[in-house]
């Protein structure tokens, strides 16, 4: 099995899984009972038709009793209308229940995903999560609405017909039974093959979603490196495999479904041959023969559906297993049971002998210690991969550290409410994520306490107002997902406004000034000065010229602190920071 394939074992008998699915029906218990009741009523009413035909022929037509025939016709119409009404309500209630359960599950999965840590998302591709939240839940719905309950009604109908056949003429029934072994073999062969095709189909859907998500979010890179053809080939490869599996399923359906008609015809033939002979010998009534044939016809309808429905159930069991697996993945970065409240913090930050690894013992931060007083600003300097962003990730508690302690205002991060902590921090990254809403909502991020005027003055403070005013719809300007309609510098300024709107006590700027033109950089620099004033700030930047106003500098090498102090102190030391500074100023001077 490759990484995309999903298991689809025989799971009809996985009772715990089954009861767990049924638990989602509990809030709609009364409706479920009503639906089952209506379904049984429809099955019973459907059984009445052929029997009424028998009475009409044998008791009324044969003896010329027209008044009796009218009565039977009337009963027949009443039965039909009642069956129609019952069927309507049954269909509506079961679909209603299915939609509600899907809604409940979708929101539960979505909510759960938001509790997952970065570690979880490092391991699970987004396309897979989309498949869980959308496709798998859809499959489960199919099982609830058209699989599970209808299987019971089909089985009920089959048993009912069987009894009616035996009641009408047991000898005739035994003759018809001759086709059953062949029917069983055909159904079984179809079911196992169709199940295999379904399993592959599910794996392909997951892979297609993952590829699609990857390509759409990485479209820039794809086009930049002329990867369109490669990616197209990869996508069409999977798509073709899915097509061939779908065609295989189609082939099985095309063989199986008409084969049921053949068995039905053979059964009918046997009835005409054997029953007709007995009718000629006056051993059986004509009405019985006609009713028998009608029942037999009805008998093959549920059989045709049953194999398909069993597969639906099986796929849904596998889907639900995956959904529950996701829901059961514990929140690995849980808040402590009794988190220390974190009222308005002053902003003291302390790292004490911090050790951290993303994986196993592969330590990215090694014995990192430093402290910042409230309102102080710190620049973290170091080569690519030295662990600068990792310091931010651990301070935000996106990941838990393995050894040491990180404290904010003296409280260890492991003890405080992480939501309260994050609500007093703001992070501005180089890659700014903007939601598909308008500018105003992207700055305010749901904080409705902030009025439009306040947002405008915040934008003013961080030099964003000017460009927003120049947009066609100003603050109402809708942004595409990812904010692609804005330039990099504009996005950066907007994210400054967002950070200021948050009014954080601790502010982190991660490479916030790279990749913009000199004029925008000046604006960003100016905004940055305003933003960090009075707040504890951590700034990560490769260009040291942008860090002239910071109080302290920390130099990292391979995850270890090699220098920490004020700029002047580090310059005096003539160590790494001094050399970097010299190197960069030589570079800017040019040859
Ligand atoms: N999610 C992750 N899972 C595993 N390893 C990671 C993860 N993120 C970063 N790393 C590794 O941790 C190390 C430090 O990464 P980090 O992003 O902190 O470096 P950085 O100093 O910020 O680099 P840059 O200046 O390039 O942004 C790198 O070796 C990187 O490969």
Automatic annotation (TrEMBL):
<feature type="transmembrane region" description="Helical">
    <location>
        <begin position="172"/>
        <end position="190"/>
    </location>
</feature>
<feature type="transmembrane region" description="Helical">
    <location>
        <begin position="31"/>
        <end position="52"/>
    </location>
</feature>
<keyword id="KW-0547">Nucleotide-binding</keyword>
<keyword id="KW-0067">ATP-binding</keyword>
<dbReference type="InterPro" id="IPR036640">
    <property type="entry name" value="ABC1_TM_sf"/>
</dbReference>
<dbReference type="InterPro" id="IPR027417">
    <property type="entry name" value="P-loop_NTPase"/>
</dbReference>
<feature type="transmembrane region" description="Helical">
    <location>
        <begin position="72"/>
        <end position="92"/>
    </location>
</feature>
<dbReference type="InterPro" id="IPR017871">
    <property type="entry name" value="ABC_transporter-like_CS"/>
</dbReference>
<dbReference type="InterPro" id="IPR003439">
    <property type="entry name" value="ABC_transporter-like_ATP-bd"/>
</dbReference>
<keyword id="KW-0812">Transmembrane</keyword>
<dbReference type="Pfam" id="PF00664">
    <property type="entry name" value="ABC_membrane"/>
</dbReference>
<keyword id="KW-0472">Membrane</keyword>
<feature type="transmembrane region" description="Helical">
    <location>
        <begin position="147"/>
        <end position="166"/>
    </location>
</feature>
<feature type="domain" description="ABC transmembrane type-1">
    <location>
        <begin position="33"/>
        <end position="315"/>
    </location>
</feature>
<dbReference type="InterPro" id="IPR039421">
    <property type="entry name" value="Type_1_exporter"/>
</dbReference>
<dbReference type="InterPro" id="IPR003593">
    <property type="entry name" value="AAA+_ATPase"/>
</dbReference>
<dbReference type="Pfam" id="PF00005">
    <property type="entry name" value="ABC_tran"/>
</dbReference>
<keyword id="KW-1133">Transmembrane helix</keyword>
<feature type="transmembrane region" description="Helical">
    <location>
        <begin position="250"/>
        <end position="274"/>
    </location>
</feature>
<feature type="domain" description="ABC transporter">
    <location>
        <begin position="349"/>
        <end position="583"/>
    </location>
</feature>
<protein>
    <submittedName>
        <fullName>ABC transporter ATP-binding protein</fullName>
    </submittedName>
</protein>
<dbReference type="InterPro" id="IPR011527">
    <property type="entry name" value="ABC1_TM_dom"/>
</dbReference>
<dbReference type="GO" id="GO:0005524">
    <property type="term" value="F:ATP binding"/>
</dbReference>
